[in-house]
Amino acid sequence: MKVFVVGAGMAGHALVEELLKAGQAVEIHLFGEERSLPYNRIFLSDIIAGRKLPSQLILKSYQRYEEEGVKLHLGERMERIFPDTKKIITSRGSVYSYDRLVLALGSVPSMPPVKGVEKKGVFTFRNMGDVYGILEMARVSKRAVVIGGGLLGVELSSALREAGLDVSLVHILDRLMEQWLDETASRMLSRKLEGMGIRVLLGSRTVEVMGERKAEGIRLSNGEVLEGDFVVFATGVRPNTSLAVASGLKVNRGILVNDFLETSAQD
Ligand SMILES: Cc1cc2nc3c(=O)[nH]c(=O)nc-3n(C[C@H](O)[C@H](O)[C@H](O)COP(=O)(O)OP(=O)(O)OC[C@H]3O[C@@H](n4cnc5c(N)ncnc54)[C@H](O)[C@@H]3O)c2cc1C
Cα–Cα distances in Å, from 198 out to 5, 168, 194? Predict the structure, then answer.
């Protein structure tokens, strides 16, 4: 039996491990849009802070996958599934047949309605590609603006500060990490970050990324302009439904499944 796992993130990797442990005669194919081997996304800010190398986040080597007989399709985005014929097509134009297919597509950054986000020097913070882009920019920059005061924005701000940049952290609400922390803890966190030299702006709504073609800062809804050499949005995520939509699966806010995690397409 041929099992396709789509999404070489943490969930996709964990499923492959379970399938291998089960020891059944299945041919496993792992498809990942990113070029990297599956890695532990949670430690991305450690790369920016210089505490870890990208290779230290990798969950398993090519050699090990090969020894275990797992077929890797990395840097190959699955574009569409044809459930009736059990075929798929990828970004390389390759067509493959499967017996069972599992979606482990994760989420994608959610961007607020801000003008100018298409400019050079504007990043999201989700994957290894984002980290390489941010690092390249950080090397030639002095000031960073991070938008979003949740877990990712806070982590990223402190990592960029550790890397020696002047950092402004801009949050729309009046306290940081409001989903995780009560008011007292939130205030303590703000003070801690300020103690590290990070400028924390609360209750501040970003409306525009300034600059001609390249980001030069942001403008807030009260008209205040904050200068910066690059801008990173860490403003939440939403379920990645694009493959499911393209393949005609039932989708609501996320991909619809039943109690057995089966989608609207069989197998
Ligand atoms: C910087 C950072 C820090 C975090 N810290 C924490 C933490 O401390 N604690 C915590 O619990 N969580 C944390 N998270 C969240 C955690 O990383 C995610 O919950 C977890 O990665 C989800 O795993 P996943 O496999 O479902 O999705 P993902 O890790 O997003 O993997 C999905 C993969 O599927 C690929 N993909 C999507 N569509 C296709 C397609 N059509 N074809 C091929 N491949 C495709 C994507 O490119 C991606 O690589 C953090 C996230 C980030 C970014």
Answer: 41, 6, 5
Residue 106 CA: which ligand 1 atom is closest?
A: 27
Residue 227 has pLDDT above 90, yes or no: yes
| Residue ranges of domains in the chain | 2-106+240-246, 109-233
Domain 109-233 bears CATH identifier 1.10.287.3510: no
Counting Cα atoms < 13 Å in the Cβ hemisphere of 143 gives 11
Helices 151-162 and 183-195, packing angle to 10 deg: 20
| Ligand 1 contacts CB of residue 134 (under 6 A) | no
Tens-place pLDDT, residues 92-150 = 999 999 999 999 999 999 999 999 999 999 999 999 999 999 999 999 999 999 999 99
Two domains, one topology: 2-106+240-246 and 109-233: yes
- Tell me the torsion sign for CA atoms 225, 231, 234, 240: positive
Asked whether 246 lines ligand 1 (CB < 6 A), one says no
Q: What is the pLDDT of residues 160-174, one digit of tens each?
A: 999 999 999 999 999
Site to substitute for ligand 1 among 4, 5, 6, 10, most atoms within 8 A of C-beta: 10
What is the position in ligand 1's atom list of the atom closest to the CA of 156?
1
CATH number of 2-106+240-246: 3.50.50.60
Q: Is 235 helix (H, G, I), strand (E, B) or coil?
A: coil
6 pocket-lining for ligand 1 (C-beta < 6 Å): yes
Look at residue 23 in the predicted model and tell me its pLDDT. 85
Q: What is the pLDDT of residue 128?
A: 97
Give the Å distance between the CA of 108 and the centre of ligand 1.
Answer: 8
